[in-house]
């Protein structure tokens, strides 16, 4: 796991060595062990003393000045002695900066050696270099793992960049006629003078709705995300962006449920085993939920030593899953480490605002950061259970939406939409009501088309709230932009035959990639921890997509077939206990620990003054403080936006704030 950065000066001007070093060193937390650089040719400008410039047989020297530069920060996991980057082929004409892990690299080494390629290392990185020589743009399809990389081809004078199928590893870029700039995090690209920090208003609208910013947008007009499962080819006068994979639900596995359960265990066991490859200490996150417990069970089967596991505990009982985690740890005789967390809320959220680079309002980033801290004290690599809910319909919202959809389909369209739409409008305004009163949401969703209804359910700020919140000039600039268009597009694109599977596909393309995986990547990389996700192995996901949805969501039983398959390995009370989620008491913090701090951030910040109507923000604040309403999601979103704005727009983001 690493941090990568680089520049391709498409106008032929030299890369500034000091800028390339700044782009790379701002990612030191992602790779604290080593740094390395590549320039494609000599030129004007001295290379800084003491900074390692990678070269092969004199193809590059230390005078600097090339029009292509690659930078790399390394977190050493595999091939500790010879895996330094940037790395090249035999004659120094193909160079790579790579972030991630390729789990099928031993097989690739064997295949490529048989085709005549010579290897100097035992690293997965070199398999990518020689794979590019052999397969060109088809390379990403041959890789099993998580990755983001940039390859410079000196002969063809082009750059190939790619991102893994699920978007586990980040890749941000800036494209202009003069240059292509990239980095593992936005802050890397922002080190380049002249890159604008103007806010992308459509991305702001997306964020207010979803609490994250979906690909390919970023919060800045000048920076984009390389979408998951895409590669791009960049030359001096062209930019080609292409998809190379998609998740299909069209084929249905006709095997019996018992056969499918055996296949799930077999494929998930393999996915787990290949992710246990490491030359440094390895362990797992353990919450005591279905998914993390399953991964620990499979790791214990594959390991001769006790599995190292990490959990956090909270004083508030309703947020504390540590007794369940302890039960699983005891069952498998794990080397278990748990810490009771009393969050230093102000310090941790300011630190996270720096690490996430964009406004990001998933509050479970806080406990994810803390469990990463606990794990990093014992291991360098941790396996997680991410992906179980998206693959097997584990979220409560799928069950609720399925009920709404049954009503929607049962009613004649001529009656249903007008009637329920009207009922939704005359239902008493719910802003002052407790959250559990879902009647208006149900009526409103039944009246909507399926994708619109799901977007409405997922939204933090509903449309009417956004209209009241945004300053008039911002609303005018947005024109008729509707963030729900993305959900409509993806819902229609899915080849699934049933409604719920279309939602699973939609979530894989949005919520999983741009919320869950962003959350885990930034929180873990903040403490230099690599996280691997066996359930998100693309071959496992391709099989899970073939399982009928009726076996995933069976009546009120979410993740039914996964839990049934795991009964051989885990206790019933672990598999069938109520889902708690990975949360901290933000609702309470905003009325206590964070009250004064949050009020100042929400009402007095430049971000509020520029983009929001202060009276609308104050109305939300006062209603939440009264205890009658719960506007945790809305207030947390606004607070994280303002913290981001202070850190990245009002001041330069060059170094992280210190926090214990």
Map the helices and strands.
Layout: E1 2-9, H1 17-25, E2 34-39, E3 68-74, E4 87-88, E5 94-102, H2 105-114, H3 124-135, E6 145-153, E7 158-163, E8 172-175, E9 179-183, H4 186-189, H5 201-210, E10 224-225, E11 230-234, E12 239-243, H6 257-274, E13 282-285, H7 290-302, E14 308-313, H8 322-331, E15 335-340, H9 345-356, H10 365-376, E16 381-383, H11 388-392, H12 396-410, H13 413-426, H14 439-446, H15 450-458, H16 463-469, H17 472-478, H18 484-493, H19 499-525, E17 530-532, H20 538-544, H21 560-566, H22 572-575, H23 586-589, H24 595-604, H25 606-611, H26 614-626, H27 632-650
Helix pairs in contact: 2-3, 6-7, 6-20, 6-21, 9-27, 10-19, 13-14, 14-15, 15-18, 18-19, 26-27
Number of helices: 27
Count of domain modules: 4
CATH class value of the largest domain: Alpha Beta
Average pLDDT over all residues: 90
CATH superfamily membership of the largest domain, which one? Answer: Aminohydrolase, N-terminal nucleophile (Ntn) domain
> Strands of the largest sheet, in order across it?
2-3-1-9-8-10
In terms of structural class, how would the helical and strand content be classed? Answer: alpha+beta
Tell me which CATH architecture of the largest domain applies here.
4-Layer Sandwich
Largest sheet geometry: 6 strands, antiparallel
Low-confidence stretches: 57-63, 428-438, 653-660
The portion of residues forming beta strands comes to 5-15%
């Amino acid at each position: 796991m690493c941090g990568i950065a680089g520049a391709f000066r498409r106008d032929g001007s030299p890369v500034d060595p000091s800028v390339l070093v700044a782009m790379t060193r701002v990612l030191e937390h992602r790779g604290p062990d080593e740094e390395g650089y590549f320039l494609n040719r000599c030129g004007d400008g001295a290379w800084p003393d003491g900074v390692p410039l990678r070269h092969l047989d004199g193809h590059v020297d230390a005078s600097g000045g090339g029009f292509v530069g690659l930078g790399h920060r390394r977190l050493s996991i595999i091939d500790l002695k010879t895996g330094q980057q940037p790395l090249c082929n035999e004659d120094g004409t193909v160079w790579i900066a790579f972030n991630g892990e390729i789990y099928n690299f031993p097989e690739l080494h064997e295949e490529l050696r048989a085709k005549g390629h010579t290897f100097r290392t035992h690293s997965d990185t070199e398999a990518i270099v020689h794979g590019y020589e052999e397969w060109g743009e088809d390379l990403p399809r041959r890789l099993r793992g998580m990755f983001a990389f940039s390859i410079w081809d000196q002969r063809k004078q082009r750059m190939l960049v790619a991102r893994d199928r699920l978007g586990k590893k980040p890749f941000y870029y800036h494209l202009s006629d003069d240059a292509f700039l990239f980095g593992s995090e936005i802050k890397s690209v922002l080190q380049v003078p002249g890159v604008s920090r103007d806010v992308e208003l459509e991305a702001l609208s997306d964020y207010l709705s979803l609490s994250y910013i979906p690909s390919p947008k970023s919060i800045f007009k000048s920076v984009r995300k390389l979408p998951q499962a895409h590669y791009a080819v960049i030359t001096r006068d062209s930019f080609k962006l292409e998809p190379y994979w998609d998740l299909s639900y069209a084929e249905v596995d006709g095997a019996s449920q018992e056969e499918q359960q055996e296949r799930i265990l077999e494929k998930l066991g393999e996915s787990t085993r290949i992710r246990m490859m490491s030359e440094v200490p390895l362990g797992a996150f353990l919450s005591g939920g279905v998914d993390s417990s399953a991964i620990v069970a499979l790791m214990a089967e594959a390991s001769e030593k006790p599995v190292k596991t990490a959990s956090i505990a909270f004083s508030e009982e309703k947020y504390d899953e540590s007794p369940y985690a302890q039960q699983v740890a005891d069952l498998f005789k794990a080397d278990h480490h748990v810490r009771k967390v009393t969050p230093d809320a102000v310090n941790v959220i300011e630190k996270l605002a720096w690490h996430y680079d964009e406004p990001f309002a998933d509050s479970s980033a806080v406990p994810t950061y803390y469990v990463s801290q606990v794990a990093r004290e014992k291991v360098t690599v941790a396996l997680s259970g991410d992906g179980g809910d998206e693959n097997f319909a584990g979220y409560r919202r799928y069950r609720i939406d399925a009920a709404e959809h049954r009503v929607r389909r049962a009613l004649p369209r001529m009656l249903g939409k007008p009637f329920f739409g009207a009922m939704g409008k005359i239902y008493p305004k719910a802003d002052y009501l407790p959250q559990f009163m879902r009647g208006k949401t149900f009526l409103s969703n039944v009246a909507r088309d399926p994708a619109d209804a799901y977007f409405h359910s997922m939204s933090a700020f509903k449309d009417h709230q956004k209209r009241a919140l945004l300053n008039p000039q911002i609303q005018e600039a947005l024109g008729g932009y509707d963030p729900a268009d993305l959900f409509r597009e993806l819902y229609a694109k899915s080849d699934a035959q049933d409604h719920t599977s279309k939602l699973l596909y939609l979530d894989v393309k949005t919520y999983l990639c741009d919320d869950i995986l962003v959350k885990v990547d930034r929180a873990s990389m903040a403490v230099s921890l690599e996280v691997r996700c066996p359930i998100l192995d693309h071959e496992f996901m391709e099989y899970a997509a073939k399982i009928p949805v009726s076996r995933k969501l069976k009546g009120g039983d979410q993740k039914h077939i996964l839990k049934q398959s795991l009964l051989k390995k885990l206790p019933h009370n672990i598999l069938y206990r109520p889902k708690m989620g990975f949360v901290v008491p933000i609702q309470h913090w905003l009325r206590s620990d964070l009250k004064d701090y949050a009020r100042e951030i929400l009402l007095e910040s430049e971000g509020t003054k520029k983009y929001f109507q202060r009276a609308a923000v104050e109305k939300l604040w006062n209603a939440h403080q009264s205890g009658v309403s719960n506007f945790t999601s809305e207030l947390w979103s606004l607070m994280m936006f303002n913290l981001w704005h202070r850190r990245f727009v009002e001041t330069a983001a060059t170094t992280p704030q210190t926090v214990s």
